Every structure is written in structure tokens, then in C-alpha cells.
Amino acid sequence: MSRTKPPRSAERRPTCVSRRRAPRRWRDQRGSTSVEMVIVLPALFVVMFLGVQAALYYHARSVVIAAATQGATAAAVEQGTLADGLATAGGFIADAGGDDVVTGVNVGGDRSATTATVWVEGHALSVLPGWAPTVRQSASIPVERITAP
What are residue 124's DSSP bridge partners? Predict the structure, then answer.
């Protein structure tokens, strides 16, 4: 049995990779970058503004809890009064930045024979117009008293 060679057209011809060219489709993709940016940039801005808003809220919350703690400490000293605690908390807010950190601040509290409590409430700054998240924190500290041994 003799083998015959297949016709030349049926042979696999080696092809050079460098000679092959991918079809050019640049004309079909004109403007695709602009469309992608129109979709991606608003999402990027939303994420960025949410991060800034979270930072503003966290800072306002930290200032308010520190003011409440300072006020409760001032009201809890042996000769302290609730008015001293409220004044200390309001002064702390003013020293920490006032309306540049927390707006519409309300300070209140209670002082009994055993516990001094001060609460501070206000609105954190907002990057979104018409929305101001409320921040409310309180602190309670035992009142100092002299006891006989």
C-alpha cells in the first residue's frame, strides 16, 4: 500500500504570526471612553462625598461626646453645679470650632446627689444641601462626695 500525498491545497501551510493582523475596530469604538466616564464619574463622586460626609459626622460626634464628658466632669466635682457643667460643655463646643463643627447646639443635663449627667445635641455639617444629621451624646459621672471612714 502506497501512501499518496494529499493535494497541495489541502496541506496545512505554516503561517507567520507577524503577518497576521487583527481586524481594526477603532472606528466602531469611537466615543466609548466618553461614555465610560459619564457612567463612572458620578459613581466616583458619590463615593467621595459619602466619605467626606462620614468624616464630618464622625468629627462632630467626637466633639459632642467630649463636650458632654467635660460638662459632666465639671458638674460632678464636690462644689460643682449643673450650671457649671452646662457652661463648660458650651464653652468646649465654642473652643472646638463652634458653628464650623456643630450647628444648633443644645446643652442640657441633670445633677442628683449621686450622679451628674450632661447631654449635648447639635447638627453635623453636611456636604449635601438641605440635610443636617443630628448628633446627640450624653455623659454621666458619679458626684464627688466626702465620706467618713
Answer: 102
